[in-house]
Design brief:
Elements (H helix, E strand, L loop, with lengths): L1 H8 L11 H9 L2 H14 L7 H22 L10 H11 L9 H11 L12 H15 L3 H9 L13 H13 L1 H39 L10 E4 L3 E9 L2 E6 L3 E6 L2 H4 L3 E3 L2 H34 L13
Antiparallel strand pairs: 1-2, 1-5, 2-3, 3-4
């Protein structure tokens, strides 16, 4: 089993400067009393594959607990040979690449940050389900890239078509290359950020255009009804006739109470004056609703203009809030 293990993990780049999990397995396999336990741990880890990622994660944790427990019993003062989730997920990938993704924290975290992957967690809160979900999303795009698939097939001896047929290895390679090529990643990130900025500007300008359209529509429906000469009724002064409308002042000559002044249009809207022509009150009430709408719309437009200015968007004169 020891020679098989060394052959399988040769060139897999699992060990790092700080962790040597494959060497930890080697140390156990060199102890005859540990071989059967290690064999059973791998059998449990490499059981029949399912699509249940949570069950897979439980197998990873069970394997880690057993192997690390044996190592700590044998070498209580050394942690360099302990198994890591990175290493164990690589064992799974080597065993069955069509159902398992390889995992390295830095490339995964970098990609998740770059694309803004929702609810991503790192460190002790790492979620295999979320990592596999992210990889599945990458894989769906990879599967549509014919040139990339052609190059990928050429990497294997004789272009073997049945190896990595699920493209899990290729998916990890995309993740790793994105993280590994610093300059290209920085350039891609800058392009992405610029594209997102422009998209945000376009969305804001579209919102501003729609608000200005609403402002213009509301403004076009505003008009003062013809009140001069209209007959009105007041609860105290009785019946009368509107003799003058000037700005916010309304003069009414009552049949018995004589001339009285009122505030316009409040006297109609608040019900102090009741016109015989009810369309006057209806239009004035509608005007009040329209004016309230306009106040809100202008505030929204100003906020968008300020945000556009902050992100570097251009504001044309026709984009300024319509004033009435």
């Amino acid at each position: 089993m020891l020679s098989m293990w060394k052959r399988c993990t040769k060139g897999a780049f699992i060990d790092t400067r700080h962790n040597h999990p494959t060497q930890g397995i080697v140390i156990l396999l060199k102890n005859p009393s540990e071989v059967e336990g290690v064999r059973n741990a791998f059998k449990a880890l490499f059981c029949d594959e399912t699509d249940d990622v949570e069950e897979k994660w439980n197998r990873v944790l069970t394997f880690m607990d057993y192997i690390n427990g044996r190592l700590m019993d044998l070498f209580p003062n050394s942690s360099i040979y302990l198994q890591t989730r990175e290493g164990i997920l690589t064992y799974l990938n080597l065993w069955d690449p069509d159902h398992n993704y390889r995992y390295k924290p830095a490339p995964a975290n970098n990609w998740a940050s770059y694309i803004g992957f929702a609810d991503w967690e790192t460190g002790q809160r790492f979620s295999l389900r979320k990592y596999y979900k992210m990889c599945d999303e990458i894989r769906e795009v990879v599967k549509e890239h014919e040139e990339l698939l052609r190059v990928h097939r050429q990497r294997f001896e004789n272009g073997e078509p049945d190896y990595d047929k699920a493209y899990h290895i290729l998916t990890f390679d995309v993740l790793y290359c994105f993280w590994g090529y610093e300059d290209a990643r920085r350039e891609a990130l800058e392009e992405y950020q610029e594209a997102m900025k422009q998209q945000h500007i376009d969305e804001l300008e579209e919102q501003l255009s729609e608000i200005n359209r609403q402002i213009e529509l509301n403004t076009s429906q505003l008009f003062s009804p013809e009140c001069l000469g209209s007959r009105v009724h007041h609860r105290k002064f009785g019946d009368g006739e509107v003799k003058e409308v000037e700005g916010t002042r309304l003069a009414v000559l009552f049949d018995k109470a004589g001339n009285k002044l009122f505030k316009y249009p409040d006297a109609f809207v608040n019900g102090y004056l009741q016109p015989e022509d009810t369309t006057i009150t209806v239009q004035l009430e509608m005007n009040q609703i329209l004016e309230n709408n306009l106040v809100s719309l202008r505030e929204q437009a100003e906020k968008i203009r300020q945000e556009l200015a902050a992100v570097g968007g251009m504001i044309n004169d026709e984009d300024k809030p319509y004033q009435h």
